Structures are given as structure tokens and as C-alpha cells.
Fold this sequence. Notes:
Elements: E1 2-4, E2 9-16, E3 20-28, H1 30-33, H2 41-62, E4 73-78, H3 82-99, E5 103-107, H4 108-114, E6 128-133, E7 138-143, E8 150-154, H5 160-171, H6 177-185, H7 208-221, H8 239-267, E9 273-277, H9 284-289, H10 305-317
Parallel strand pairs: 1-4, 4-5, 6-9
Antiparallel strand pairs: 1-2, 2-3, 6-7, 7-8
Bound molecules: 5'-O-[(R)-(carboxyoxy)(hydroxy)phosphoryl]adenosine and zinc ion.
Amino acid sequence: MGIETSCDETAAAVVEDGRKILSNVVVSQIDIFAEYGGVIPEVSARSHLEAMMPVVNKALSDAKCTWDDIDAIAVTHAPGLLGSLLIGTLTARTLAILHNKPLYATHHLKSHVYANWLSNETTPEFPLLALVVSGGHTQILYMKAHNQFEIIGTTHDDAIGECFDKVAKILGLPYPGGPSISKAAEKGDKSKYKFPHPKVEGLDFSFSGLKTAVLRTVQKELGLPISHPSHDLKNHLNEQQIADFAASFEKTAVDILVEKLQMAINEHPDVQSVVVAGGVSANKALREALPEAYFPEPKFSGDNGAMVAAAAYYEIQSGVKPTDPYKLNIYPRISIEN
Ligand code: KG4
Ligand code: ZN
């Protein structure tokens, strides 16, 4: 059983041998946060607390399992929101002690990468490059083998998902910004506005400048000064302008990701596969721009328990030993290399 509560999804799933999904239950807090434009950590933790046990019980019953059928419990212990991680890990620790199951604590980005092994017909081959694009991270990882991660590129400031969320806020589109920008972009002209690509050395990224470029271009388009508050701009934009901004921003964001990924591929001619992971891997334009890459099934792009179970399965295969449920800690900010 995999349990995930690092951000705004309370999730549990039962997975057999790292690939076969017997159940996958996700309760999202999106409805709570849509009107705020982002996640409020304390509200998220309280919501996890309410949903956690019903979600675990539904994952068991959907899989037609009892605790006797469960071999191990896996849980996200890093990185994420402190209060949210605490609810998932305390639940997993308690269940592991109560039902006498081995406990595995997994890194959230590792789980996102392993979503690519779930239910896909073929599995990626090593060495591989993983483009991890989520609300909190933008990284390119080099994986020589299972459970071995080397960060070869990372963002200097905002994550790509965060950038989608902030641009959506400027345009008056609901949280989470990724899906709402994509939807608005369908009716937009992606070549209407030109945004510069950041000048960052090597395989690293930067997205804070892109967010500001959108802000300044919106102000300019509306004939408003740069001092005009960003939260009011949405009241001046018409539907076509919103669609054009969404489409032009999405195209620039995808182009930046693809450009850096291509650089990484050129620098690592030994790679056999490329996988894309994290919430932003649900993006249609990104999927279309990388036809050769592995993507998770869209429902496994966002946070879920199945990917946590898959990551733990491959950890076990790599010889990782279970964690003491009495001692498990959380790490709200920690690199996948630790
Ligand atoms: O992986 P995830 O569910 O949570 C974190 O680990 O951060 O990623 C959430 C992020 C949000 O910023 C959301 O706007 C973005 O993924 N996202 C998308 C799409 N669906 C979700 N971004 C672009 N296009 C999408 N279709
Ligand atoms: Zn995530």
C-alpha cells in the first residue's frame, strides 16, 4: 500500500509488484483552494486528517484486500508541506505497527518518476533521463539504474508548475493553473505574444523571469503602468486576450523545457529512454512536443498513492531495508540525491 499526503491530495493505493494497480484512491483539496489561488498549509493538513483513514480503507476495499494481503506500507516522507507530510507519515507508521508490516519511506520526486512504470505496456530502460516537472520542482535527473538519481539540472527560482499557477492567477484563471491555462489556451494564438527564454547556464532553469514577463506584457497590452496591481489585471482582460496569453505562455514554457531536455540528451548520448514526471507531465502540449518520451498515464501525473507504492517496490528490489516505524522522520525540504 502506498500513501501520499505531501501537498493537496490525500491518496492511497494498492499495487502489486510495482506495476499492477489494484486500487487508487485520490481525494483532492483543489475545490477548497481554487478560490485562494494556492494551497494554505494548515488548511491542507486538517483536510488530510479528515480524509486519511476513509481513503486508506477505500483503497483496501476497492482492491478487495484485507490487511493480511498487504506485504508492506510505503509513504511519502519528503519533500512537501510539513503538516501534510506529518498526517501521512503518522498514519503509515501507526498502521505499520498495528498490522506488523514493513514500512518504506520514499522521496516524492522518486515516486513521480516511478509513475512511469505503472501500468504502461513497456517500461523505460537505463540509463535514462527524467524531466521532473511539478508544483515544487523542475529538475533533470540522470538515472544509471533503479533507485540511483543524479541531478544534472535544476531551477534557480520558481518551479514550472508554480509558474503556471502564478500566471493563471494574473489571468484570473482558477488554481491549479496548469489545467486551467491549457484549457484557456485551446482558443488562443500561441504566437501572439513573445516571451524571452531565460539565460541560464547549462541544464539549469529559471521561471521567475517568465512570470514577470507575462505580468509586464499584460500591463502593456492594457495600457496600464507597471505599478498597477497584478490581482486587478484580470478585471480588464477580455476572453480572447486571456486565451492568447495562456497559449503564448504555455508555448514558451514548453519550449524552454524541451530545449533544456534536448541539451541534456545531447550531453548524455548513452541514454536509452527519457521519462517525464510530476504534475506538469499531464500537459498536452508538452506530451505532443516529446512524442518519444515516456509519460505516466495522465491520472498518475499528479500526486497519487500508486506511484509511492511503485517507488517503494523498486527500492526493495534495489536492496533498501525498511524503516523503523518508531523512528521515521519527515524532511519538508531535501534533495532526491540524499
Ligand atoms: O506533482 P504535483 O501534483 O504536485 C507537486 O508535487 O507539486 O504538481 C502540481 C502542479 C501544479 O503546479 C499544477 O498547476 C501543475 O502541476 N499541473 C499542470 C497540469 N496539471 C497539473 N501544469 C501544466 N499542465 C497541466 N495539464
Ligand atoms: Zn507531486
